[in-house]
Fold this sequence. Notes:
By secondary structure, the chain is α/β, with parallel strands linked by helices. It has a domain at about 1-75 and about 195-244: P-loop containing nucleotide triphosphate hydrolases (Rossmann fold, 3-Layer(aba) Sandwich). Helix content is about 35%, strand content about 25%. The protein contains 9 helices and 10 strands. It has a 6-stranded mixed β-sheet, sandwiched between helices. A 4-stranded antiparallel β-sheet has the order 2-1-4-5, covered by helices on one side. The termini are far apart. The mean pLDDT is about 90.
Amino acid sequence: MSNCAIRFKNISKKYDTVTALDLVNLEINDHITTALVGESGSGKTTLLRLVNGLMQPSGGQVEIFGDAIDYEKLPDMRKKMGYAVQGGGLFPHMTVYQNITIMAKLENWHETRIKERADYLIELVNLQKDLLDRFPHELSGGQRQRVSLCRALMLNPSLLLLDEPFSALDPITKGYIHEEFVKLQKAESRAILLVTHDMEEAVKLADNIVIIKKGKVIQNGKVEEIIASPKNEYVSNLLDKVTD
Length: 244
């Protein structure tokens, strides 16, 4: 069986006259965390949104676990994916517990199964139990991000997509969330695609790094390989920002 979770084949994406992605060929491996790193406007978030069908490529094909995306069956495909964004993206009219469990309820899971899975995730990300009846506006940024991770992982998806999930957090809170994220990685093996503009975060959390600039992949490989042999000055400058 292939170890490839996501395959981008000759992917291009254009917005009017602007080319966001230019013939990208890339494989994202299963059971590891891959960070997509690039400055604002590099095309990294566009790549992520192609994976869950929020947008379609102008050319080329995206495959998920060996199958080309069927845009007529996106809801079925998305059940296999967790998705978390900057700020949490929580439903404001739902409590913390309702946000975490909504997908399982829509899938008609038994209440016992829902509670067991929710309790496991809540403990894993170190979310205080007394927050479960609160609403998103009553939470701190770090708390919202923990809830968002729990919701994204509720159905135990094969693929987790993270779009700048930690970028709005202050450095201290971000450090704590990073620790919880590492625990999640160790507890459950899955393909994780993390979009970030923060090279330090990528080096800390990812196994592989893909560096993208102006819609093209500049370098792709294991973290230690990229640190040892940056391909050009652009990559070197990104690495210069990484502190020990």
